[in-house]
Write a structure and sequence with these properties.
Elements (H helix, E strand, L loop, with lengths): L2 H12 L3 H19 L4 H7 L5 H12 L3 H9 L1
């Protein structure tokens, strides 16, 4: 199967592109880690597959409507 055909079949089955699916899973995992552990945000960004904390923060903010720090603080209170 060609990459193009895979991407089209994947999108038809899941409703999102393979890249968007992977990013969504990374953000979900980051949310779990932000809720449960005390690691720094840069470490969590690296752990879930983002190369820089700033890229992670931008994607997280776009997806969740708040920064990772704000999300972590809201989970603590």
């Amino acid at each position: 199967m060609s990459p193009f055909r895979f991407a089209r079949a994947f999108k038809k089955a899941t409703g999102q592109s393979p890249r968007q699916y992977v990013i969504a899973r990374r953000i979900e995992r980051a949310m779990q880690l932000l809720r449960s552990c005390r690691g720094d945000i840069a470490g969590i960004a690296n752990q879930v597959g983002f190369s820089t904390q700033s890229h992670f923060t931008a994607v997280f903010h776009r997806r969740c409507g708040m920064t990772p720090k704000r999300f972590r603080d809201s989970c603590r209170s």
